[in-house]
Amino acid sequence: MKARDYTPLLAELAELYARRSPRSQAIQNEAVKYLVDGGSHSLRLIKPFPPRIAAAHGAWLTDEDGHRIMDLWQGHMANILGHNPPEITAPVAEAMAGGFGLQTGFTDRLQVDTARILCKQTGSERVRFTTSGALATMYAIMLGRAFTGRELVLKVGGGWHGSQPWALKGIDYHGGVGNGYQAVESNGVPAAVTDQVLVTPFNDPDRLRDLFRANGDQMACFIMEPFIGVGGYMPASTEFVQAARELTQQYGVVLILDEVIAGFRFRAGNMGALYGIQPDLTTFGKIIGGGMPVAAVAGRAEIMELASVSEGGSRAHKAARVKFSGGTYSAHPASMLAAWTMMSYLADHEAEIYPRLGELGELARRTVRDAFAAEGIYVHVTGGGAPLTAGSSMLMLHFPYEPDRPLVSPSDCFDPARCDITLCHSVLDLAVLIEDVFMLHSHAGLSTAHTDADIAFLGEACHRAARRIKPTL
Ligand SMILES: Cc1ncc(COP(=O)(O)O)c(C=O)c1O
To answer: What is the reported pTM?
Structure first.
């Protein structure tokens, strides 16, 4: 196959983009004087510089240069009702005006209401709130280790659980495939992480069985995403999730489903329920916060109670206590109000919202495929197409060299021998951004604010992008 050299195309796209975005460029020039790389989340700092957003409503953004951009990144996948939906902003604004919203440092009724609805919608017995998905997965792993009194943590190769020590092994999508997802990918992490974190391939129940046979009695917990997010937008197979549940039960290992992306995305509750299993713990974030920084660990009371400082419980239980505590802004008042409002809204309107999102998702996946096919380019769009993901508003574009070979795990999608990684992760973002569509590393998520007309706009943008890309292929 002809080697694809994207250097000239990337330079052309970067120049077109820079020419139409002088204000974002000027802000970036100022930003790098104070912020590392010009921002606080590396993923968002796209090259040559990110668009600086001035306003966001529904499906659309306005940047500092005055472009209206159709947004498929939607708050880093947190905004299922679109940007700044009035269903959330109105009650928050009203509460703020009435003296409730900013930090109190106390606890309130709303936290109870928010916990009640989260437990009800997810079959959880207890919940504790925190402020980011990374903290939630870190606390869940600490609970798993304390509950079992064991050290080993099992995760999936290419599974992203936030930037926290136990989650930084086996995450780098491009280089990760080459090293079998066995490297710790940050400095400053305790050396023990190298040996204490084991990595298993996604959607491979046989390898999972082998790993449990070899290490199951020393394993504390297995953390996995039921719908792998950054790792490629693919659902875990039913066989894989069932094997995970059976093996964790057989070996006394805590099963943690990380639903920071999947929670309330496919139904008004946890995705685990769609597989007919109950994990021991589930982590939530993103959508549940209604656009505010809310995350949670929820699950079996017996495990969650290890975070308790009360006098009750057995001596062994007290000895296993986990400092899942602190967090000045944990269960922040306005955040709880936004979270309660969002989860209540999704639960009340579940019957309309998810079928509509699924329909819109299917339309978008088909439209994108057709737009590239019109220029003779095969794009494999993950995110839907299975009964489990019937309500899926997610899509990710992959460019495999062999269309007929299925993509079922990060090691398929991020293998440069199998898929065109540069096209997926660098070229496409810029090629559609100059057409006023934003997606990041080819990840896209729709919201209830998107319309059929927005999908048609996406199709036209993809078609023009495909035309620009074609000569390089
Ligand atoms: C599945 C999953 N878990 C955890 C996290 C970390 O969440 P946060 O970025 O809020 O720390 C993410 C973030 O994208 C995620 O996708």
So the answer is: 0.97
